[in-house]
Amino acid sequence: MNENTTQDRRNAWSQARSMAAQTPESRNRYVDFLRAWSICAVVFGHWLMAAPYISDGSIMISSMLEHQAWTRWLTWAFQVMPVFFLVGGYSNSVSWQSAQRRGQGYGSWLQARLQRLIGPVLPLVLLWAFLAAGAQYLGVHPTMVKVASQMALIPIWFLAVYIVVVLLVPVSYAAWQRYGFFSFAVLVALAIADDLAFFSGFKALGVLNYAFVWLAVHQLGYAWRDGYLAGGRQGSTWMLGGLVILVALVAFGPYPVSMVSVPGQEISNTLPPKVTLLALGIAQCGLLLSVEKPMRRWLAGLTPWTGVVLVNSMIMTVFLWHLTASTLTIGLALLIGDIGLDAIPGSAAWWMLRPAWIVVYLLALLPFALLFGRFERSAAPATEYPNWRLIPGAVLACAGLALLALDGVAGEGLLGLKDWVLLLPFLGAFLAGINPFRKASRGRGADER
Questions:
Q1: What residue ranges do the domains of the chain occupy?
Q2: Which residues pair with 54 in a beta bridge?
């Protein structure tokens, strides 16, 4: 068993090294590095802050952000979704420009993007439907099933938002080409106006900032691709500007310190997104782009670049399945005598156990990465589907993913599930012609990203 595992690891490294050696010099490797780094930061942050523990014989699901207020400052480093949207803007501009040069239509381009975004999440949703139905059949309380599935499916909220951003790429990129930074400024103004409406009592309007905030960061990806954010001086200016605004918003505004939601806290910077996330994104993007040149020199080396290629080959799988791995690990710990769950969150013993828990979570994630990584490399259909199928399909999938991320899979429907909500991603995938089992050809063009 150990010999096979070692051989698989060697084969994976060899394949990644072979792909890395074929990378053209024109590719901006720092984009791929940031994609891998941002997702790994999200995974580590989730695992670090998760604080389940036993109290009076019952499992309590909590976060360290509840127990020790100082940890909320750490979210300024670990809330890196803005970086992923920055990278998304860069990558989408490259792929969209490439599609236009080849004479490829919007439908064909969108099909390929949806395949890579929706295809890998379908097995995750399907597995949790089976787990939830089976658990309730065996007598597990529906509330427990709901909480477990909510925890595991947190990552899919990002996909729901990002798919909408991808749908709008032709419009947002055209706006960038024609209006430049004015297209970014308009979105910033809309995000500010939406926050003002939210705090004035029109809380339902806050949902609009899922579009305004993340589209604004996505526009910065276009600016990066066109060379407007290059250089240490430019990056440092954006970083300082974003940081000053963020500190001012937290110090003098109604915004909390934490850049992720804290259970029990009335105002959240993420549900829905606030301009604080936009300021954080500006600061983070400025910081990371200020060191782009030395990082690109380092990534020109074969060994570090091979590591990036290897991680990116399974990064969506790691992102989607990391909380499933940790949730099932906690469930197993409960079954075998609450092992490792008796330390009080925030205590010295709890912090000392964190490295061990993270290693255990990582080991639990490996089988999921190996088993489900193939769905990340599935191919779009050869036949181009019409937009009247692709766009409604994407919207249905988004709606289903958003509802599942919000409330889990347990419900009042067939087998104790939210049956109609569970159907939405699959119905959307069917309309868009998405099949996660369709095999892709080896390798991708440098401009496809």
A1: 42-431
A2: 59
